[in-house]
Design brief:
By secondary structure, this protein is of the alpha+beta class. The protein folds into four domains: 97 residues, PTS-regulatory domain, PRD; 61 residues; 84 residues, Gyrase A, domain 2; 48 residues, Orthogonal Bundle (DNA polymerase, domain 1), CATH 1.10.150. It is built from 15 helices and twelve strands.
Protein backbone atom coordinates (compact mmCIF):
# COMPACT_ATOMS: atom_id res chain seq x y z
CA UNK A 1 0.00 0.00 0.00
CA UNK A 2 1.39 3.35 -1.06
CA UNK A 3 1.39 6.18 1.46
CA UNK A 4 0.91 9.79 0.40
CA UNK A 5 3.80 12.02 1.33
CA UNK A 6 2.94 15.51 2.56
CA UNK A 7 4.87 18.42 1.06
CA UNK A 8 5.43 19.85 4.55
CA UNK A 9 5.05 18.52 8.06
CA UNK A 10 2.18 19.55 10.30
CA UNK A 11 3.07 22.76 12.12
CA UNK A 12 5.95 23.62 9.78
CA UNK A 13 6.71 27.40 10.06
CA UNK A 14 6.66 27.97 6.30
CA UNK A 15 6.86 31.76 6.66
CA UNK A 16 10.10 31.54 8.64
CA UNK A 17 11.59 29.06 6.16
CA UNK A 18 10.63 31.35 3.26
CA UNK A 19 12.13 34.40 4.99
CA UNK A 20 15.37 32.53 5.67
CA UNK A 21 15.58 31.13 2.15
CA UNK A 22 15.10 34.48 0.43
CA UNK A 23 16.89 36.57 3.07
CA UNK A 24 20.10 34.54 3.04
CA UNK A 25 20.38 34.65 -0.75
CA UNK A 26 19.50 38.32 -1.05
CA UNK A 27 22.49 39.26 1.15
CA UNK A 28 24.75 37.90 -1.60
CA UNK A 29 23.16 39.96 -4.37
CA UNK A 30 24.76 42.83 -6.27
CA UNK A 31 23.84 46.42 -5.38
CA UNK A 32 23.90 47.80 -8.89
CA UNK A 33 22.00 48.13 -12.14
CA UNK A 34 23.34 47.08 -15.51
CA UNK A 35 22.65 47.30 -19.22
CA UNK A 36 20.62 44.46 -20.64
CA UNK A 37 22.41 42.60 -23.43
CA UNK A 38 21.22 43.47 -26.93
CA UNK A 39 19.07 46.41 -25.89
CA UNK A 40 20.74 49.71 -26.65
CA UNK A 41 20.63 52.14 -23.70
CA UNK A 42 18.11 50.02 -21.78
CA UNK A 43 19.07 49.97 -18.11
CA UNK A 44 17.66 47.12 -16.06
CA UNK A 45 17.38 47.21 -12.27
CA UNK A 46 18.60 43.87 -10.92
CA UNK A 47 19.87 42.21 -7.79
CA UNK A 48 18.91 43.53 -4.37
CA UNK A 49 17.53 46.91 -5.61
CA UNK A 50 14.99 45.11 -7.82
CA UNK A 51 14.06 42.66 -5.05
CA UNK A 52 13.45 45.61 -2.71
CA UNK A 53 11.27 47.26 -5.39
CA UNK A 54 9.12 44.14 -5.57
CA UNK A 55 8.80 43.52 -1.82
CA UNK A 56 8.22 47.20 -1.08
CA UNK A 57 5.48 47.24 -3.76
CA UNK A 58 6.82 50.42 -5.36
CA UNK A 59 4.12 52.10 -7.45
CA UNK A 60 6.53 52.59 -10.35
CA UNK A 61 9.70 50.57 -11.02
CA UNK A 62 12.84 52.63 -11.47
CA UNK A 63 13.33 51.25 -14.97
CA UNK A 64 9.97 50.10 -16.40
CA UNK A 65 10.25 47.83 -19.44
CA UNK A 66 7.97 45.84 -21.70
CA UNK A 67 8.45 42.81 -23.92
CA UNK A 68 6.06 42.50 -26.84
CA UNK A 69 5.96 39.37 -28.98
CA UNK A 70 3.80 38.72 -32.03
CA UNK A 71 2.02 35.91 -33.79
CA UNK A 72 4.34 33.85 -35.97
CA UNK A 73 3.05 35.49 -39.17
CA UNK A 74 4.30 38.93 -38.02
CA UNK A 75 7.22 37.76 -35.86
CA UNK A 76 8.92 35.99 -38.77
CA UNK A 77 9.00 39.18 -40.88
CA UNK A 78 11.46 41.86 -39.76
CA UNK A 79 9.77 44.63 -41.78
CA UNK A 80 6.37 43.91 -40.19
CA UNK A 81 7.87 44.03 -36.69
CA UNK A 82 9.73 47.23 -37.61
CA UNK A 83 6.40 48.75 -38.69
CA UNK A 84 4.90 47.79 -35.30
CA UNK A 85 7.89 49.46 -33.65
CA UNK A 86 7.04 52.73 -35.41
CA UNK A 87 3.43 52.51 -34.24
CA UNK A 88 4.41 51.90 -30.60
CA UNK A 89 7.46 54.14 -30.02
CA UNK A 90 6.60 57.54 -28.55
CA UNK A 91 7.53 60.38 -30.92
CA UNK A 92 7.39 64.00 -29.74
CA UNK A 93 8.18 67.20 -31.62
CA UNK A 94 11.36 67.61 -29.57
CA UNK A 95 12.69 64.24 -30.78
CA UNK A 96 12.34 65.41 -34.41
CA UNK A 97 14.19 68.70 -33.95
CA UNK A 98 17.65 69.51 -35.25
CA UNK A 99 17.42 72.91 -33.53
CA UNK A 100 14.91 75.63 -32.67
CA UNK A 101 14.89 79.39 -32.26
CA UNK A 102 12.35 81.36 -30.26
CA UNK A 103 11.69 85.07 -29.85
CA UNK A 104 9.31 85.56 -26.95
CA UNK A 105 9.08 89.30 -27.43
CA UNK A 106 7.94 88.91 -31.03
CA UNK A 107 5.94 85.77 -30.20
CA UNK A 108 7.65 83.62 -32.81
CA UNK A 109 9.47 80.27 -32.88
CA UNK A 110 11.21 78.42 -35.70
CA UNK A 111 11.40 74.62 -35.53
CA UNK A 112 14.20 73.17 -37.68
CA UNK A 113 13.16 69.54 -38.20
CA UNK A 114 15.76 66.83 -38.68
CA UNK A 115 15.33 65.28 -42.12
CA UNK A 116 16.80 61.92 -41.07
CA UNK A 117 14.67 61.72 -37.91
CA UNK A 118 11.53 62.36 -39.99
CA UNK A 119 12.47 59.69 -42.55
CA UNK A 120 13.36 57.14 -39.84
CA UNK A 121 9.89 57.46 -38.31
CA UNK A 122 8.02 57.91 -41.61
CA UNK A 123 6.68 61.32 -40.52
CA UNK A 124 6.23 64.29 -42.88
CA UNK A 125 6.54 68.00 -42.14
CA UNK A 126 2.86 68.43 -43.07
CA UNK A 127 1.85 65.85 -40.44
CA UNK A 128 3.79 67.73 -37.76
CA UNK A 129 2.10 71.00 -38.78
CA UNK A 130 -1.35 69.41 -38.78
CA UNK A 131 -0.87 68.02 -35.27
CA UNK A 132 0.30 71.39 -33.93
CA UNK A 133 -2.53 73.34 -35.58
CA UNK A 134 -5.16 70.90 -34.24
CA UNK A 135 -4.01 71.10 -30.64
CA UNK A 136 -2.84 74.73 -30.50
CA UNK A 137 -5.46 76.93 -32.16
CA UNK A 138 -3.80 80.12 -30.82
CA UNK A 139 -0.81 79.85 -33.18
CA UNK A 140 -0.28 80.42 -36.91
CA UNK A 141 2.00 78.10 -38.87
CA UNK A 142 4.03 78.36 -42.06
CA UNK A 143 6.90 76.36 -43.42
CA UNK A 144 9.85 76.51 -45.76
CA UNK A 145 11.55 73.19 -46.47
CA UNK A 146 12.07 71.39 -43.16
CA UNK A 147 11.61 74.56 -41.08
CA UNK A 148 8.27 75.34 -39.44
CA UNK A 149 7.56 78.90 -38.29
CA UNK A 150 5.19 79.32 -35.36
CA UNK A 151 3.60 82.70 -34.56
CA UNK A 152 1.51 83.18 -31.43
CA UNK A 153 -1.72 85.18 -31.64
CA UNK A 154 -1.13 86.24 -28.01
CA UNK A 155 2.30 87.79 -28.50
CA UNK A 156 1.60 90.49 -25.90
CA UNK A 157 1.27 87.83 -23.18
CA UNK A 158 4.86 86.60 -22.83
CA UNK A 159 4.03 83.95 -20.22
CA UNK A 160 1.30 82.45 -22.43
CA UNK A 161 3.67 82.50 -25.41
CA UNK A 162 6.42 80.77 -23.46
CA UNK A 163 4.01 78.10 -22.15
CA UNK A 164 2.63 77.44 -25.63
CA UNK A 165 6.09 77.08 -27.18
CA UNK A 166 7.25 74.65 -24.46
CA UNK A 167 4.06 72.58 -24.88
CA UNK A 168 4.43 72.52 -28.67
CA UNK A 169 7.94 71.06 -28.43
CA UNK A 170 6.68 68.47 -25.92
CA UNK A 171 3.63 67.53 -28.04
CA UNK A 172 3.31 63.87 -29.01
CA UNK A 173 3.10 63.15 -32.73
CA UNK A 174 2.67 59.38 -32.75
CA UNK A 175 3.14 56.20 -30.75
CA UNK A 176 2.09 55.18 -27.23
CA UNK A 177 2.69 57.62 -24.40
CA UNK A 178 5.40 56.47 -22.00
CA UNK A 179 7.15 54.13 -24.47
CA UNK A 180 10.31 56.17 -24.84
CA UNK A 181 12.47 53.76 -26.80
CA UNK A 182 11.70 50.60 -28.76
CA UNK A 183 14.26 48.08 -30.00
CA UNK A 184 13.67 45.07 -32.25
CA UNK A 185 15.39 41.88 -31.04
CA UNK A 186 15.33 38.33 -32.30
CA UNK A 187 15.34 34.87 -30.75
CA UNK A 188 15.01 31.53 -32.50
CA UNK A 189 14.47 33.18 -35.87
CA UNK A 190 11.50 35.24 -34.61
CA UNK A 191 11.51 38.98 -33.93
CA UNK A 192 10.07 40.72 -30.88
CA UNK A 193 10.11 44.19 -29.32
CA UNK A 194 11.71 45.44 -26.08
CA UNK A 195 10.89 48.88 -24.72
CA UNK A 196 12.12 51.52 -22.32
CA UNK A 197 9.05 52.71 -20.45
CA UNK A 198 5.76 50.93 -19.87
CA UNK A 199 2.12 51.61 -20.77
CA UNK A 200 0.27 48.30 -20.82
CA UNK A 201 -3.19 49.75 -21.43
CA UNK A 202 -1.95 51.97 -24.27
CA UNK A 203 -0.03 49.16 -26.00
CA UNK A 204 -3.06 46.84 -25.89
CA UNK A 205 -5.07 49.44 -27.82
CA UNK A 206 -2.69 49.08 -30.79
CA UNK A 207 -4.15 46.86 -33.50
CA UNK A 208 -2.58 43.42 -34.00
CA UNK A 209 -1.29 43.32 -30.40
CA UNK A 210 -2.39 40.13 -28.67
CA UNK A 211 -2.84 40.60 -24.87
CA UNK A 212 -1.26 37.17 -24.34
CA UNK A 213 1.96 38.34 -26.03
CA UNK A 214 2.59 41.44 -23.89
CA UNK A 215 4.55 41.56 -20.63
CA UNK A 216 5.60 44.44 -18.39
CA UNK A 217 7.70 44.53 -15.21
CA UNK A 218 5.24 47.05 -13.70
CA UNK A 219 3.11 44.94 -11.33
CA UNK A 220 0.58 47.71 -10.68
CA UNK A 221 -0.14 48.11 -14.40
CA UNK A 222 -0.80 44.36 -14.57
CA UNK A 223 -3.08 44.66 -11.51
CA UNK A 224 -5.08 47.51 -13.06
CA UNK A 225 -5.44 45.87 -16.49
CA UNK A 226 -5.60 42.12 -15.85
CA UNK A 227 -6.51 41.85 -12.15
CA UNK A 228 -5.04 40.54 -8.92
CA UNK A 229 -4.36 36.94 -10.05
CA UNK A 230 -2.23 38.17 -12.95
CA UNK A 231 -0.44 40.57 -10.57
CA UNK A 232 0.27 37.68 -8.20
CA UNK A 233 1.77 35.65 -11.05
CA UNK A 234 3.86 38.69 -12.07
CA UNK A 235 5.28 39.05 -8.54
CA UNK A 236 6.35 35.39 -8.58
CA UNK A 237 7.84 35.72 -12.06
CA UNK A 238 9.75 38.93 -11.25
CA UNK A 239 11.20 37.46 -8.05
CA UNK A 240 12.32 34.29 -9.81
CA UNK A 241 13.90 36.36 -12.60
CA UNK A 242 15.93 38.32 -10.05
CA UNK A 243 17.35 35.11 -8.59
CA UNK A 244 17.89 33.59 -12.05
CA UNK A 245 19.96 36.60 -13.16
CA UNK A 246 22.09 36.16 -10.03
CA UNK A 247 22.42 32.45 -10.85
CA UNK A 248 20.84 31.65 -7.49
CA UNK A 249 18.07 29.11 -7.02
CA UNK A 250 15.17 29.18 -4.57
CA UNK A 251 12.09 27.01 -4.44
CA UNK A 252 9.30 28.72 -6.39
CA UNK A 253 6.90 27.87 -3.52
CA UNK A 254 8.68 30.49 -1.40
CA UNK A 255 8.03 33.20 -3.99
CA UNK A 256 4.43 32.00 -4.32
CA UNK A 257 3.89 32.25 -0.54
CA UNK A 258 5.11 35.86 -0.51
CA UNK A 259 2.99 36.74 -3.57
CA UNK A 260 -0.07 35.18 -1.91
CA UNK A 261 0.49 37.25 1.23
CA UNK A 262 1.03 40.48 -0.75
CA UNK A 263 -2.15 40.07 -2.84
CA UNK A 264 -4.53 38.27 -0.47
CA UNK A 265 -6.76 41.37 -0.05
CA UNK A 266 -7.16 42.09 -3.76
CA UNK A 267 -4.45 44.76 -3.90
CA UNK A 268 -0.66 44.67 -3.83
CA UNK A 269 0.67 45.33 -0.32
CA UNK A 270 4.30 45.74 0.67
CA UNK A 271 6.02 43.50 3.18
CA UNK A 272 7.12 46.33 5.51
CA UNK A 273 5.51 48.51 8.16
CA UNK A 274 3.23 50.23 5.64
CA UNK A 275 1.92 46.87 4.42
CA UNK A 276 1.73 43.37 5.87
CA UNK A 277 3.82 44.00 9.00
CA UNK A 278 1.80 47.11 9.86
CA UNK A 279 -1.54 45.36 9.28
CA UNK A 280 -1.02 42.50 11.75
CA UNK A 281 -3.79 42.03 14.27
CA UNK A 282 -1.40 41.58 17.19
CA UNK A 283 -0.09 44.72 18.91
CA UNK A 284 3.12 42.96 19.98
CA UNK A 285 3.74 41.67 16.43
CA UNK A 286 3.36 45.19 14.97
CA UNK A 287 5.61 46.64 17.66
CA UNK A 288 8.26 43.97 17.09
CA UNK A 289 8.95 45.19 13.56
CA UNK A 290 9.42 48.98 13.70
CA UNK A 291 8.08 52.05 15.55
CA UNK A 292 7.61 50.17 18.82
CA UNK A 293 6.52 53.08 21.03
CA UNK A 294 3.95 54.34 18.51
CA UNK A 295 2.18 50.97 18.37
CA UNK A 296 2.04 50.57 22.16
CA UNK A 297 0.75 54.12 22.66
CA UNK A 298 -1.95 53.68 20.01
CA UNK A 299 -2.94 50.29 21.44
CA UNK A 300 -3.31 51.77 24.91
CA UNK A 301 -5.24 54.79 23.61
CA UNK A 302 -7.73 52.67 21.66
CA UNK A 303 -7.92 49.85 24.27
CA UNK A 304 -6.73 47.13 21.89
CA UNK A 305 -6.57 43.49 22.99
CA UNK A 306 -3.81 41.09 21.95
CA UNK A 307 -4.97 37.49 21.87
CA UNK A 308 -1.40 36.15 21.52
CA UNK A 309 -2.19 33.74 18.67
CA UNK A 310 0.85 34.38 16.48
CA UNK A 311 4.53 33.55 16.65
CA UNK A 312 6.22 36.92 17.27
CA UNK A 313 4.01 37.98 20.17
CA UNK A 314 4.50 34.66 22.01
CA UNK A 315 8.28 34.84 21.61
CA UNK A 316 8.23 38.35 23.09
CA UNK A 317 6.44 37.29 26.26
CA UNK A 318 8.28 33.96 26.54
CA UNK A 319 5.41 31.60 25.78
CA UNK A 320 5.62 28.47 23.68
CA UNK A 321 4.96 29.26 20.04
CA UNK A 322 2.30 27.40 18.07
CA UNK A 323 4.57 25.86 15.43
CA UNK A 324 6.09 22.40 15.21
CA UNK A 325 5.52 20.40 18.41
CA UNK A 326 4.10 23.57 19.96
CA UNK A 327 0.90 22.96 17.96
CA UNK A 328 0.38 19.51 19.53
CA UNK A 329 -2.00 19.42 22.49
CA UNK A 330 -2.32 16.35 24.76
CA UNK A 331 -5.77 15.42 26.04
CA UNK A 332 -6.89 12.83 28.62
CA UNK A 333 -10.34 11.57 29.46
CA UNK A 334 -11.68 12.22 32.98
CA UNK A 335 -12.30 8.48 33.41
CA UNK A 336 -8.66 7.71 32.67
CA UNK A 337 -7.53 10.55 34.92
CA UNK A 338 -9.33 8.97 37.88
CA UNK A 339 -7.34 5.75 37.38
CA UNK A 340 -4.07 7.58 37.92
CA UNK A 341 -2.81 7.12 41.51
CA UNK A 342 -1.72 10.28 43.36
CA UNK A 343 1.81 8.89 43.86
CA UNK A 344 2.11 8.48 40.06
Amino acid sequence: METKRNEISYGEPVGVVTAQSIGERSTQMVLRTFHSAGIVSQVVTAGLPRLIEILDARKKPKHPTMTITFDKKIASNYEDVKEMKKRIEEVRVSSLLESFEENLKAGTMVLNLDKEALALRSITVRRVMDMISQRFPDVELSNEGNSVSVRSKKKKEIRAVRTAFVNIRAEMISGVEGIEKVVVNSEGGLFYISTNGSNLKGVLEVNEINPENVYTNDMFEILNVFGVEAARAAIVNEMMQVFAIEDTKINVKHAMLIADAMTQKGVIKSIGRHGLAGDKESVFARAAYEETIKHFVNAAFFSETDRLKGVAENIIIGRQITVGTGRVKLMIKNADLEKVKPED
